[in-house]
Amino acid sequence: MKLQAGKNSITFTSFGVALVGDLYLPEGFDENKKYKAIVGASPFPQVKEQVLGTYGPEMAKRGFVFLGFDYLGMGDSPALSGEFKQSRYMFRLIENTWDAVSYLGTLSFVSEIYGMGVCQGGSIIASASITDHRIKKIATVSGMMASDAFQWTDKAMVNQMIAAANNSRQKIYETRKPDYVAPFGLNDEQSREDYIAVAGVMAEESYNYYGRDGIKGPKTIENFTNMHIGDQPMESLISIGEHYADKIVQPTLVVYGKDAPTAICSTAFIDKLTNEHEVLAVPEFGHVDFYYKPEAVKVSTDAVAAFFNK
User: What is the pLDDT of residue 43?
Assistant: First the structure.
């Protein structure tokens, strides 16, 4: 396939199936030259047209090759035989990332490979890099690397989530049918007013992005839905990146909103890092601002580009 500057649709193999991705190439791309490449990792429960579709062109504009892709069972990528779509399981996301790195490694014009993750993508990239040293540097933006202080503080609530996930897994096994839920209480039909009235601290900014009328919600992104397979918390509540942070050897950049409710997910991770690392804590932006707001995306992409170019 002939690759050209801009967005290129590609596939690569993981778990024996073809995952679908977008490979963003810099202006004036020349396959005989060498470029630094980035594998992107997206927030839960996103598809490649959302955050990665925002960051891909921005990083290509800054001279990088950028790979955004749909994980197994998400977006345009198939589920495994006998399994169901919208099944974004954490351990598989890590292996999909390793295979994405392998794909980039086959491209003759790629010199070094870096990893960049946003929200849950931060946890994915941090976890993948622990034992994949083909990834030479990593950067996280609004990263959810540390789940203990954010997700496990209210153990009664966590145990309710686990009970629901366990029941869902049993139901799926017995019926051989998917059991879909709205992980954040947000479905594809709710109005802004209805959701904000019952949701938590990040309700408005979450709806502004993911809601029916949101900037990257199901009306805008055809292959996206807020509904997800019900047993997913059995994996997402396990944070590998946080507890293995001191094992990460790659230089690391952590960008986050200083006053965002999720800041602890970056700061607790930073506290455990023993490698060379840099931190950019930005007071004026919230967690979701870094997904799409031009002024926030410029801050994060400029910082990531500068870090990867050092």
Answer: 96
The model's pLDDT over 27-86, given as tens digits with 9 standing for 90+, comes to: 999 999 999 999 999 999 999 999 999 999 999 999 999 999 999 999 999 999 999 999
Q: What are phi and psi of 178, to 5 degrees?
A: -70, 150
Q: Tell whether 277 is covered by a domain.
A: yes
5 DSSP assignment: S
DSSP letter string over 277-297? EEEEEETT--TTHHHH-HHHH
Contact 232, 136 (CB under 8 A): no
Share of the chain above pLDDT 90, in %: 89
39 C-beta neighbours (distance < 10 Å), count: 31
The per-residue pLDDT of the chain, averaged, comes to 95
pLDDT above 90 (res 242): no
76-to-121, 125, 232, 243 alpha-carbon distances in Å: 18, 21, 19, 32
| Residue range of the domain that includes 285 | 6-148+237-308
How many domains in the chain? 1
283 in any annotated domain = yes
Tokens 């202080």 sit at which residue? Answer: 149
Local structure of 241: helix, strand or coil: helix
Number of H helices, E strands in the chain: 12, 10
- Domain assignment present for residue 270? The answer is yes
Does some domain include residue 154? no
Q: Which pTM value belongs to this model?
A: 0.96
Question: Strand 110-118's sheet: what is its strand order?
Answer: 6-14, 17-25, 65-69, 35-41, 110-118, 135-141, 252-257, 277-282
SS (H, E, C) 164-232: HHHHHHHHHHHHCCCCEECCCCCCCCCCHHHHHHHCCCCHHHHHHHHCCCCCCCCCCCCCCCCCEECCC
Question: For the chain, what percentages of helix, strand and coil (3-state, to nearest 5) are there?
Answer: 40, 20, 40
pLDDT band at 149 (very low <50, low <70, confident <90, very high): confident
Instruction: Please answer whether residues 135 and 113 qualify as being in contact, where contact means their C-beta atoms are separated by less than 8 angstroms.
Output: yes
CATH number, position 248: 3.40.50.1820
